[in-house]
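Exam prep: given the inputs below (a chain plus zinc ion), describe the expected output before reading on.
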Amino acid sequence: MGSLKFIVSVFLIFLVWLSIGLVKFDYLFNCFGPDLEPIGVSDAKIRAARKLFTRTPLIGEPIYFVKKTHCYNGWAGSSDASSVVVISQAVMDEFSIEELAGLIGHEIAHLENPLSNREHWEVDLRGAELTTKELMIKKLEKMAAVYTDIYDKNMIFGLPALRARLIVRDFRERLEKIKTFAK
Ligand SMILES: [Zn+2]
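Solution:
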């Protein structure tokens, strides 16, 4: 009977561990949600980041929104009438103006050519052209750093750490490509 109790206890501890990992996973990586707020080009930080661009994008100025999420991400979308860049609140709060410029450069590069099936690093490459190589490197290094931090803090929870690790690897690969190919 002693060993059965032991096995049940271990199993319950495993379930608790798995549940905490799943809750953390959802909290850290589920960026979906409708909480968008327009911020516009009048936002000082957006305006400062846009001033760092060295080339004029092939599209008109997009409308900017902030998404109330702690995910570190940006999104781009367009309709016939307008194009939209969405930036997460965490990025707005924690990224420097230079890092933000790199992120906006990437999103505008998506908007210039929304239907192309370029690889993601090639979108970075165009973003580096619009801003500078240095700014795109700063943005990619920042992304790798924030997800490395998430990895470090979640190492004991398994799943979220694994996901963070894969994201860090993706950003580091993109970083190497930009260091190699951007002018
Ligand atoms: Zn992208």
